[in-house]
Protein 1
Amino acid sequence: MDTASRVVLIGGSAGGLQAILTLLPGLSARLNAAVIIVLHRQSSSDSVLAELLAVKTSLPVREAEEKELLLPGTIYIAPGDYHLLIETDHTLSLDYSEKVNFSRPSIDVTFTSAVEVFGPQTMAVLLSGANDDGVEGLADVHEAGGITIVQDPDTAIVDFMPRHAIQAVPVDYVLAAADMASFINSFAGLMVG
């Protein structure tokens, strides 16, 4: 199978998991993009998180591993306590460097890394959260011509992250989590067959 030519990035912190669980069931089983989820959480909860997300979608869900190829129609979760980067050969790289915005994995690190590889074929979604992580990465996606979506702060469990993003970055869409899947499906397109 060919590597992904488009990527959908989803970042969240406090309250972000609930938003992800709301949007995942609407994703097409033939989604023609790789999906990368960066969620702030305790490092010990990785396998539980993958299992929890897998029951909400027909797409395969896996914890990202070093040098793993990014494939369309697959959901990758950034492992706890590692930054997740995308290399130019469309493989994943795990990094244990310093925390960014008090976070590892950092949403900004992944968003910025991905847009350097995928450029305008990047969609970034920022969900509920209590800090600034993801805002700078959203700006990078916007500047590269990618699509930016922020959760409607009125629907977020913790509205600080989405509210700050809307104030700081030209955001393409502000949506409730339940309305995001159709935008993601449209951006990604569907695999044939």
Note: DSSP finds six helices and nine strands in the chain.
Protein 2
Amino acid sequence: MRYYHIIRISFLILFVLGASSSLAADSFPYKDVGDGSPATSVVLTLVDGIAVDRGGNIYISHRSKNRIRKVTPDGIITTIAGNGTVGYSGDGGPALEAALNFPAGLTVDGKNNLYIADRNNHRIRKVSPDGVITTVAGTGVAGFGGDGGPALSAPLHLPSDVEVGPEGELYISDRSNHRIRKIDPEGIISTVAGLGVPGFGGDFGLAINAVLKFPFGIALDRHGNLYIADRGNNRIRKVTPDGIITTLAGDSMHSFGGDYGPATYSNLAYPTDVVVDDKDNVYISDRNNNRVRKIDAQGVITTIMGTGKTDFNGDNEIAPETSLYLPFALAIHPDNKLLVVDRSHFRVRSVGLANFAVRTVAGNGHSLFKGDGGPGPGATLNTPSGIVIDSHDNILFADLQHHRLRKLTPDGIITTFAGTGREGNEGNGGSALSASLLMPSTLAIDHEDNVYVVHRLGNGWVIRKISAQGTITHFAGNGQQGSDGDGGPAVEASFYTISDIVTDKGGNVYVSDSTSRSIRKIGKDGRIHKVLDETMVPMGEEFHPNSVLVDDEGALYFSDSGSSRIGKLGADGTFQIIGGTGEFKDYGDGGLAVSAGIRSPGGLALRDGVLYLAEEQTARIRKIDEKGIISLVAGTGVTDFSGDQGPAIHAQMKSPFRMVFDHKGNLIFTDRDNNRIRKIDTQGIISTLAGHGNFGWMQDGLEVRITVQDFP
């Protein structure tokens, strides 16, 4: 997500020659999606990576459209790789005709080769200066292996970033293998950091013996130090040229703090990228804090961009007074600027490192919203998340990045029932349709059809309640980050990271907070207290509750993404593990669930004593029957989209997130990264109920929000 600063003189001649090659993409092959237009006029949604070459050309990994875009110094955007379809094809031919699958991190070497972390293809691709695409690492099968051999024979697992070194070596953030790997100039791959198990450990020892947790962005400095955005540990790690690893910033707490002090005592929240300038300043995309942080050469951390608030306030302020919304990727521009992917403001921003002036260099700030009043499959969804069913069999779901709650009726018509699309927390006491929401995530519903919605507010969270009559009110959360308030009113309580909510038949609301390692209960009297935390379960500090549900007998079930287990707290207070060995692996179908490997379990659903669980990372849905036997319900383990109208076990999904049963026994779930609502019927056949997989890409000049009545 950056370029490397040390380039040999011999590279420069090749670089100049390459500037006139097809990588310049001046033929505007995809004018229908904005090619040839000013970069600030097009829609950019889900940008995952960014890089810059020495000529000042900016490369953008447009993940949601499976394309790589290029912005020239005069501000014109083109496509240089990817035909827009999801898949893997095109090696040996023009990059413009190739298929990519959720491209992520980017880097450019001194010969003007562009490297792409082709995430869901589990490969690293290369686009040469003459526009030819090839694969340089990965077999296409998610897994780990191959160290000491050719990189093309080595499995990768959802690689998130790439970085090129001064001798032509290529570093890979092998995210779901929890490793950093290196390809030497001869094409041989090895591991340079990470044991391959998620967790934290190993500081002051050899990096190959250290423990990482979902590493994202990586960077090299001019001295050969490697920096790792250790996202799952809320830390930045540093590996010296002799292979010793330490923590540079962060103390594991998912929070904000520590400015003007030593970076090792600071707090970060889901850091996703890191870059280094030629003065040894380190910049961090502190994603969930909505800030960019800087660590100077003396190790002092400060905020250089972002107020912590998410409402867009333009480019008229200096960087520290400019709001960001989930900053994701960074790059150093040769003109002494920092490029910031302001992901949920749908922009790429430029920050002058001398004067902190801010400018938008790509993206018009809009995402495409459409479909209300028409059939669900014609609607555009943007990260559908929580989902519930009301008493009339309407499917209600959170359209997260559209900042709305939407409803799909039994006859298949989609509408909005809460949210204007404007980000915020306004409108309490009035109609939910006139209220603003901010990234609504998970939902719950009670027996009176009151809907509870979780969304962000500032650095924290709130829960709001929408009555069956459509009035929205504040239910819980003060918008501050923390875990305070037990014993008092829920509206005054703080939360770190609300991962799920659920109601029981008595109308109590349970809240899962993964970062504070707790599950809390809000009673009918509106007061909150803790019912479970890491001191009460055998997982201890590995306990990170994800999804929760309560059965009719009052038993509480939860998925623990930290220990990769499923737990149950009985109504009598007894606790048991009902699924998972604790290994971050997939195995055991057909046997006892307690002897099976479950990889980061997420959403849960229960019907007739059978527990269903979603595994986001492996894109599968499994079930545990009343005898404790685990088996596959849906998914092949490959993250993609396929299989509609056929058996669900042969279908492909991308991050199945939350699930619910309708009154006919059909399993309805949000296929989050496919931007669809899907159904598995009682015969095991899968289909799409809403969404078509595309969102946010539109031709320059179209209205941002349209209502579509007729669908092709």
Note: The longest helix spans residues 9-18.
Protein 3
Amino acid sequence: MPALPILEKHLIAFILVFVRLGGMMTTAPLFSRKDIPAQVRIFLAVALALLLTPMQLGSSVPSPQGLVAFATLVGGEFLIGIVLGLGLMILIQGMGLAGELISRISGIGMNDVYDPTSETEVTGMSQFVLAIGIVAFLCFSGQRALIGGLLESNRELPIGTVFDSQEVLSLLLTMLQASFVLAVRVAAPAMAALLVVTLVLGLVSRTLPQLNLLILGFGLNGLAAFGIVLLTVGITTSVFEQELMAALDRLFPWGFGL
């Protein structure tokens, strides 16, 4: 076989694998953070693409006829990477949503701060609970499972595979539902504790109406919220692990390869 067609096949396979990895790193947890330099992400994507490209050469590598066909292939690979990364990001953001729920109910959500990584205003509790989720994600080797699942996806979804839009929408909706379930399960203990604190303050206000319970209530609610979150870290990580494993099984039904 002439050298030029072989080189063209290798180059097309490398570009498509690199684009899929780049799409995943655009949306996946940790990799998509703005405080991670773009050069690091590009280097990691190139390194992984160099390792994965030989795996794709054993299967049929598409030969696009024209720029439009090639752009379509690139867009499809980028979409696959985005969907796999975004699905997991949606779930992990459920931890941030849990912190947001706790903040709004306890009244400490009024002290929003600017988060440069997401370029939005968030509450301290939201960032704290989200940090617990990210640490748990690393402790459970979530990043290895994510990369392993993406590596296996190159076997189950060879380059050039066309994604069914209905399946993509169904998958993202399922992950969104799992994210809300995770948020409620994580926030439930703190919400119950805050309800008890509110009832106690109501009884105290009836007994001692001269006390300024408005100021006292904010302090007690904040203290109770942080106290319960700290006391239930073990339960929180256990719940997060359950939802994370279920999410990884949905995103990577072919396994993680690790």
Note: The CA atoms of residues 20 and 81 lie 5 Å apart.
Protein 4
Amino acid sequence: MLGRRWLRAFVREDEGGVTVEAALAVASLVTALVLCIGAVLGIAYQVRCHDAAREAARLTARGDQARAVEVAMRVAPPDARVTVREEGDLIVAVVTADGPLLPLLTLTAEAVAVREPEGTR
């Protein structure tokens, strides 16, 4: 008889355990979902940075430096920074942007193109 009372008291103390476990499971799932979405957005931003750097380097190599930064800013993620520099016959374009969900993460892409001769345009 004493054993049954102890068992009932023990079971009654554990009644809220399922609620706590469910809350932790939901919080874990939401955290995992946010991290996955952040990873996908980060990859998309990185691809856009790479495309913008490639366009800026290509247009500058063809002699269209006026449009190079403009086109790169259109292709790049919001608030990206585009820089184009010359190193001899090489044109180097660098695009940097902050990560979409983690602002401490900086995404960078660099593209290099060879300057085209004047008569081939």
Note: Strands lie at 81-87, 90-98, 106-114.
